[in-house]
UniProtKB/TrEMBL annotation:
The family this protein is said to belong to: Belongs to the RRP4 family.
Residue spans crossing the bilayer: none
Principal subcellular localisation of the protein: nucleus
Domain RRP4 S1 per the UniProt entry, residue ranges: 35-104
PANTHER family xrefs: EXOSOME COMPLEX COMPONENT RRP4 (PTHR21321:SF4), PNAS-3 RELATED (PTHR21321)
Organism expressing this protein natively: Colius striatus (Speckled mousebird)
Alphabetic keyword roster: Exosome, Nucleus, RNA-binding, rRNA processing
Protein name: Exosome complex component RRP4
Length: 250
């Protein structure tokens, strides 16, 4: 028996409400509502909480983004000096959202992050949705450009970022420029619909990954964006999503 289980009268019983996971003969129950436990290689979305780059990532302790684990603006790899450290304040401030990768886990369980790849960095315009980490499906990639016209970053830590799909990828700035152009109404409507679809999937305890989100988005199209949050509409569109996923697997 594994975590989240106990034996009583020779029966294996779950000690938490969650999803059963089996690895060979080992049986675990992963709690639906829990803090994020970092694993090396995970993609996370987090918020800068204080200088020296402490980051809130929904885990038990603040995560850490070291200066040596960052690309400097423009993707330059310079020697990290005091000037570089001061210059970072021009690009990162408390309250900023970032995407990053888990580089290592400290002995106390705190997570060390890095943003060395140009696909990571500061997040600009979009919407943050917080969900239980156990509902985010692990995949090869957690960055998805959806055909509906918006993109999502599915953070393993349960922070999901929805934003307009860029017409062209600007990799010159090393992930530190923020686009402050007004977002067109059509893009805002797509983002709002996606956000409500994710809330509906979470309410019905369905795993979150690019296909489930897209199917739910398509199932929601006959409804107004604000109506997606009505319990009866949630149930209807998630039922249709679940059926399409089963058909796909079948």
């Amino acid at each position: 028996r594994g975590h989240g289980t106990y034996v009583e009268e020779e029966k294996l019983i779950a000690s938490v409400a969650g999803a059963v996971e089996r690895v060979n003969k080992l049986v675990c129950v992963k709690a639906l509502k829990s803090r994020y436990n970092g694993e090396v290689g995970d993609i996370v979305v987090g918020r800068i909480t204080e200088k020296r780059w402490k980051v809130e990532t929904n885990s038990r302790l603040d995560s850490v983004l070291l200066l040596s684990s960052m690309n400097l603006p423009g993707g330059e790899l310079r020697r990290r000096s005091a000037e570089d450290e001061l210059a970072m304040r021009d690009y990162l401030q408390e309250g900023d959202l970032i995407s990053a990768e888990v580089q290592s886990i400290f002995s106390d369980g705190a997570v060390s992050l890095h943003t060395r790849s140009l696909k990571y960095g500061k997040l600009g315009q979009g919407v943050l949705v917080q969900v239980p980490p156990s509902l985010v499906k692990r995949q090869k990639t957690h960055f998805h450009d959806l055909p509906c016209g918006a993109s999502v970053i599915l953070g393993n830590n349960g922070f999901i970022w929805i934003y307009p799909t860029a017409e062209q990828k600007d990799e010159e700035a090393g992930g530190f420029t923020t686009n402050l152009e007004p977002v067109p109404l059509s893009d805002r409507e797509v983002i709002s619909r996606l956000r409500n679809c994710i809330v509906a999937l979470v309410t019905q305890k369905l795993m979150l990954f690019d296909t489930s989100i897209l199917y739910c988005y398509e199932a929601s199209l006959p409804h107004q964006i604000k109506d997606i949050l009505k319990p009866e509409v949630m149930e209807e569109i998630v039922l249709e999503t679940r059926q399409r996923l089963l058909d796909l697997e079948g």
